[in-house]
Amino acid sequence: MPLLLKMTWQSMLRKPLRTILVMMTISFAFAIFGLADAIDNAFSGGRDLSQTKRLITNHKVSMTNTMPIHYGDQIAQLDGVTMVTHATWYGGYYQDERNPVTVFAVDAQKYIEIFDELVFADEQKSAFLSNISGAAVGRAMADQQGWQLGDRVQIHSNIWRTKHDTNVWDFEILAIFEGEDTNTETNLFLIHHDGFDETRSYGNYSAGWFSIKVEPSDTKEQLAIAAEIDALFANSESETKTATEQSFLESFSNQYADIGLVLKMVMGTVVATLLIVCASTITQSARERQRDFAVLQTMGFRVPWISTWIALESFFTVLIGAVLGIVMAMLFAGRLKVVFTELIPEVTIGFGDLAFGLMISAGVGLLAAILPMFELSNTPIVKTLSRR
Fold first, then answer.
1. What residues are paired with 87 via a beta bridge?
2. Could you list the residue ranges that cross the membrane (predicted)?
3. Exposure of 112 by Cβ count < 10 A (0-12 exposed, 13-18 middle, 19+ buried)?
4. DSSP state letter for 182
5. I need a labelling partner for 194 at 20 to 30 A (CA). Which of 53, 162, 205, 333 fits?
């Protein structure tokens, strides 16, 4: 076996430029494969919210339309509803429009109680709740922006303006909250709706959506409550659409799911083309050495041994390229998470994806060796040696 591995390595270096180019092409193909899978996972994956007992009510026409805040009081009177809170999309960015931040103006006390997966230190929680000019920032956002507790930051809005005709709000970071697990979204910036309402120039006493905590855990019972809520505001100026939180987020992500699918299909075509080209090159490299293999046969090396040599060379060439490509994909995925955090906040390549990629690389490597191995076992030595 040591001799076989040594010869495999030497044959890979027989034409180093070609070997390097093939590996680079394979690396590029698997980098594309890894990114496509990561992006598809980002669009289709996410936290399982099926057991959260929460409903979301938003305007029937569009998520961008607001509703009167007093809707929350009416919803709270319904049977099965235990708590209601509201929130409004701020449309924020920090310093530059290319640096968007997810800002919600919330009914802070109830919001924190309903979304109990957001974990606050007691002192920080008290400080945030007692100051309507303060803000609470998720750990992911604080780390990304380099913010610390006590920092004062100016957040611009693409939607709202203050009564002083500016789109800039000034906040002090009074709390930095964690998530109860790694799947909890902490790329958030929470501000008090009361303070926001006092200073915005229009849209006062309105909210973007209501988050409703309900008693039943059964989906059918939750949907019955959702129907009651929508019936409550039927034929009003601001009709509503209510769904379970899981359904709401799925419908929202489905707006981008087709993009992820198309992107994956296009990238898959590119990957397949590159791998076919590489497999063809590897096959040609082995066929060029048929005379060498025939000489080895005359020296006593058996066909199975030489076939194993051919297969190992092909396998290692593809495997090394695939590993480099997957490493590149992981690095690029981390960069995508930073750049496109608003659209695809969780861009990761899972263990299953890595294993699948390595299985593909092994398959391509072995397939590329099949034709030379077949020719080796079916072509007489004399005929092979007579070739020029």
1. 106, 209
2. 261-282, 303-334, 354-374
3. buried
4. T
5. 53
Burial 338-367 (b: 16+ CB within 10 A, else e): eeebeebebbebeeebbeebeebbeebbeb
Q: Are 87 and 208 in contact (CB under 8 A)?
A: yes
What tokens appear for 200 in the block?
């915005």
**Could you write out the DSSP letters of every residue in 102-124?**
-EEEE-HHHHHHHSTTEE--HHH
Q: Which of 157, 18, 14 is nearest to 89 (CA)?
A: 157
pLDDT tens by residue, 136-163: 999 999 998 999 999 999 999 999 999 9
Under a CB-based contact definition with an 8 Å cutoff, are residues 34 and 333 in contact? yes
Residue 200's nearest CA partner among 166, 250, 162, 174 is: 162
Report which of 139, 238, 124 is spatially closest to residue 174, judged by C-alpha positions: 124
In this prediction, residue 49 carries a pLDDT of: 47
- Cα–Cα distance measured from residue 83 to residue 113, given in angstroms and rounded to the nearest whole number: 9
Residue 200 forms beta bridges with which residues? 162
**Which of 368, 355, 361, 367 shows the shortest CA–CA distance to 318?**
361
Would you say residue 135 has pLDDT above 90?
yes
pLDDT of 142 reads: 94
What band does 107 get if pLDDT is binned at 50, 70 and 90? very high
Please write the tens of the pLDDT for every residue from 298-326: 777 777 877 787 788 888 888 888 888 88
Write out the DSSP string of 83-95.
EEEEEEE--EEES
Gyration radius of the chain over CA positions: 30
Residues 6+ apart with CB under 8 A from 2: none
> Residue 267: which pLDDT band, with cuts at 50, 70 and 90?
low
Quote the DSSP letter at residue 60: S
pTM over 0.90: no
Kindly provide the b/e burial profile for residues 264-281, where b requires at least 16 CB atoms within 10 angstroms of the residue's own CB.
beebeeebeebbeebbeb
Reference 37, options 196, 236, 261; nearest CA is 261
| Domain-wise residue ranges, the chain | 2-46+255-385, 54-215
Query: What single DSSP character describes residue 273?
Result: H
